Amino acid sequence: MTTSPSVRRLLNVTAAGFCLVWIFPVYWMVSTAFKPYGDILRTTPHFLPFPLSLGNFADAVGKPGFLTDLGNSLLVTASVVLLAVVVAFLAAVALTRFRFAGRRTFLITVLVLQMVPLPALVIPLFLGLRSAHLLDSLFGLALTYVAIVLPFTIWTLRGFLHGIPVELEEAAMVDGAGRMTVVRRILLPLVAPGVIATSVFAFITAWNDYLFADVLMKDQGHQTLPVWLVSFSTATGTDYGGLIAASTLSALPVVVFFMVIQRRLVAGMTAGAVKD
Amino acid sequence: MTTTTRSPRPSAARTRAAARPTRRARRPRREPRALPYLLLLPATAVLALVLGYPLTRLGVISFQDYGLRALFTGQVGWAGLANYRAIADDPQLVPVLLRTAGFCAALVAGTLGVGLAVALMMVRLGPAMRRAVTFCLIASWAMPPVAGTLVWQWLFEPVYGVVNWALTQTGLFGDLSQHDWTSSPLSAFALVWLLVVWQSVPFVALTLYAGLSQIPRSYYEAAALDGAGPWRTFRVITLPFLRPILALVTILSVIWDFNVFTQIWILTQGGPNQGTTTLGIWSFTKAFSSDSFGQGAAVAVVSVLLLFGITVVYVRRLVRSGEEL
Q1: How large is the average pLDDT for residues A21-42?
Q2: How far is CA A176 from CA A182, B7, B14, B48, in A?
Q3: E strand or H helix that includes residue B78
Q4: Where are the residues of the annotated region Disordered (chain B) (predicted)?
Q5: Are A201 and A152 in contact, with CB atoms under 8 Å apart?
Q6: Which of A42, A167, A259 sits opposite B138 (nearest CB)?
Q7: Residue B297 has what pLDDT?
Q8: Residue B279 · residue B303 · CB < 8 Å
Q9: CB contact under 8 A, A115 and B311
């Protein structure tokens, strides 16, 4: 697009202003986390976290429950990503490589399920898992997340599989490859971007959720990191140093993850939903 | 598909592939076999168990007298329409509905407005500046909602928060050094609005930017030759090209913003004086604070129906456009 120098300068200034505003909360979180304790509660804030201090992190990690709940979060998230991708991949193969009665119905059901407001499910899930004695069970929680992410993961993987020409698989079978070999050597590598996109989605859903974890996991020691964070903030009132350091720790895996895969992120998010 | 045949004869497969004229005309072959159903089984089981069953159960509970007694004895009586009648008679109903709709509309408008502006800005920026904007968007996108909300609490902390300090420094709003943002419904909503917009703009902006960058440059050159101004170019070229993606991010924003729960719950718990209680919060507090699961379920049913009503138009259009579904 052709732009005159004055317009370009105006654009750059606007962009810089936008960047400052948008990054500031993240900067403020990291900077607060690294400040020495006495520098946090200041009526005139210090903008640079010098001298650097790791005291807040030590404080957060040392609090009861942090390591257990971090472990729970990791365990649940890893199971959700693995289960959701495998289950959705199988479903997507069925939906794109076979034609069978009920196929359309299944697809429309998935599409409609994607529109269900999740907070509405909290009550029946709580009562249902309660009578099945699956409250406070990491397995029950993980299963809940798998169901929450499935509509999106099926829809997205279906979009990716749809774009892979079936001729490739046929050619491989002509050359004598078995069905599993075709899946392993042809489908999986080609659908890798889709698997990444859906993994990201499953990862952030399970890692970030607060509502379901809060309601379904009542026992201390069975909670996940977001619930731990919120209880930390209400229990200690104003210990912002430890709280913000713990928030930084919980954000760290996601931020790193997003930065690494940022190129594929948008493509993957939209590929399944927008028709080619 | 040959993948469904156990041992395809090479020659037959080859001729079939050769006979296929174009990719569009390709149709999976109808084969009444168990394999596709087997592949769908795990997904169906999980969806039925964790989404289908609770959804049905939600409807059932909304007609039941499900309170503390039922929770402990396991004896649940039918309530007929009593839960719905109780909600309809509740003076909170109309304010909650209006609040939910208004807040959702404000969030969608804010997110789409800022997101579209940022996307339009990004296509006009140089590579270095564009990378900087992308970096900032990804950073805020990646922030977990709970962590983001707690950071918000800290940013807007009445005495030590950096926002009150900065606003006081500008001298435009008087002394805000003690100002509690959650003390009035309007400023509490503003607090949540800023947070949710900050969290949702990245997805919208990056998606719209991806759409914008696919519009062929030659269209704009032609428009410039014809002497079209920027507004006309936007209306005649940019907007029609962007429409499907714009529709997608709009409907997703409506769904997400209608369901905003965590941010409101942590920042205000629906207060002050229920001034920030939306449908989701209302249902939640009815069930888990007043132990009236029946009424909570009834409110939830109302929200499910409302959202379905909003999205059904979009889904129908998508289903109709997708012949190859």
Answers
A1: 89
A2: 10, 9, 13, 38
A3: strand B77-78
A4: 1-29
A5: yes
A6: A259
A7: 94
A8: yes
A9: yes
**Average pLDDT of A100-125?**
87
Q: Using CA atoms, how far apart are residues B200 and B213, in angstroms rounded to an integer?
A: 20
Q: Which of residues 152-191 of B touch A (CB under 8 A)?
A: 152-155, 157, 159-160, 162, 165, 177
Q: Residue A65 half-sphere exposure, CB side, CA atoms within 13 Å?
A: 16
Chain A to chain B, count of Cβ pairs less than 8 Å apart?
A: 328
B77 phi and psi angles, rounded to 5 deg: -100, 160
pTM score: 0.85
Inter-residue contact B264 to B278 (CB < 8 Å):
yes
Q: Of A245, A247, A260, which is closest to residue A196 (Cα–Cα)? A: A260
**Number of independent structural domains in chain A:** 2
Class of domain B92-291: mainly alpha
3-state helix, strand, coil in chain A (%, to 5): 75, 0, 25
Tokens matching residue A212: 């379901």
Which among B14, B74, B308 has CB closest to A115?
A: B308
ipTM: 0.86
The alpha-carbon gap from B260 to the nearest alpha carbon of chain A, in Å, equals 9
- Structural domain includes residue A276: no
A154 within domain boundaries: yes
The SS3 assignment for B65 reads strand
Strand B64-65 with B77-78, pairing: antiparallel
Question: A115 CA to chain B: closest CA distance, Å?
Answer: 7
- A126 lies in a domain? yes
CA A102 to chain centre: 31
**Per-residue CA distances from A131 to A121, A127, A128, B87 (Å):** 16, 6, 5, 27
Nearest CA in chain B to A119: B280
Let me know whether A68 and A29 are in one domain: no
Dist CA A233 CA A42 (whole Å): 19
User: What gap in Å lies between CA A236 and CA A74, rounded to an integer?
Assistant: 25
Q: Which of A116, A204, A243 to mutate to test the interface with B (most CBs of B within 10 A)?
A: A116
- For residues A40 and A110, membership in a common domain is answered with no
* A42 and A159 both lie in a single domain: no
Q: Give the angle subtended at the CA of A81 by the CAs of A272 and B43, to the nearest 5°.
A: 65
**A168 to chain B: nearest residue by CA?**
B17
Report the C-alpha gap between B86 and B77 in whole angstroms.
Answer: 16
Q: What is the pLDDT of residues B106-127, one digit of tens each?
A: 999 999 999 999 999 999 998 8
Q: Which of B294, B50, B272 is nearest to B180 (CA)?
A: B272
**Residues in contact with B324: Cβ distance below 8 Å, sequence separation at least 6, in sequence order:** A162
Same domain flag for A43 and A26: yes
Q: What is the mean pLDDT of chain A?
A: 85
Parent domain of A83: 59-271
Among the partner-chain residues A19, A100, A119, the one whose CB lies closest to the CB of B259 is: A119
Report percent pLDDT > 90 for chain A. 36
